[in-house]
Every structure is written in C-alpha cells, then in structure tokens.
Amino acid sequence: QVQLVESGGGWAQPGGSLRLSCAASGRTFSSAAVGWFRQASGAEREFVAAISRSGARTNYADSVKGRFTISRDTAKNTVSLQMDSLKPEDTAVYYCASTASSWTTPTSLINAYATWGQGTQVTVSS
C-alpha cells in the first residue's frame, strides 16, 4: 500500500512562490497518475493539476494554468507542484493523490484517485 506525504506548504505574499512536494512511501507510485487537489475553508475539494504515469502529459485547472507547474521525479518517487504568481484565492489545504492502477492519464476526476495524502496548508496573504 502506497502512502503519500505532502510537504512545502506555508505562507506567501501575493505574487510569491511556493513549491509543494509529494513523496510516496511503502510502494512506488510510478505506475499511477498523480494529482494535486485543494480545498479552501467551506468549499469543496477541487482539482488543481495532474501528471501522467510517464510524466509526458499534464493537466491543469484553468485557474492555475500558466502559474503552476507539476512535475515528477521517478527516481526519487516524488511529484512536485511549483506555484508561482500566487493569489489570495490560492489559499487552501493542498492534497496530493494517486490514481488506481487502471488510470494512467492525468485526469481531473476526483473519483479516479484512490490514495490521498494528509494535506498541507498554503496561505497567500499580505
């Protein structure tokens, strides 16, 4: 069973940057697509970005396109989310998740993700 642990959250000013990392332990998640989701206070969890099993394909929510970059390092068994030009509306708990073995594409469908991390808080404010 793979376990996911997020790190790198914290506080940033508007226009600033943060880099989140998702590390897998227990088992590799190299056979799965990996996604980032976020949940603001009082809101539903929403898709942010995803990367395919191979790393060749990515998918982004319109709200973060051009500002966030997802990448994966298979050798280190990690997936990162580089967040630039941060906005106050990016404030949320960010979760990484890996898909069930039948999904290898960078899907935005939350139900395709079988394993979730515990989340890391990102706060953007001046």
Structure report:
This protein is mainly beta and 126 residues long. It has no helices and 11 strands. Strands 2, 4, 5, 6, 9, 10 and 11 form a 7-stranded mixed beta sheet that branches. Strands 1-3-8-7 form a 4-stranded antiparallel beta sheet, with no helix packed on it. A hairpin with a 6-residue loop joins strand 5 and strand 6. The mean pLDDT is 94.
Q: Key terms for this structure?
A:
126 residues; mainly beta; 7-stranded mixed sheet; 4-stranded antiparallel sheet; 48% strand; globular
**What's the count of strands?**
11
Biggest β-sheet description: 7 strands, mixed
Helix/strand/pairing category:
mainly beta
CA-atom Rg in angstroms: 13 Å
What shape does the CA trace take? globular
Mean pLDDT: 94
User: SSE order in H/E notation?
Assistant: EEEEEEEEEEE
Q: Helicity, in percent? A: under 10%
Helical element count? 0
Determine the strand fraction and express it as a percent band: over 45%
Low-confidence stretches: none
Measured between the Cα atoms of the first and last residue, the distance is 40 Å
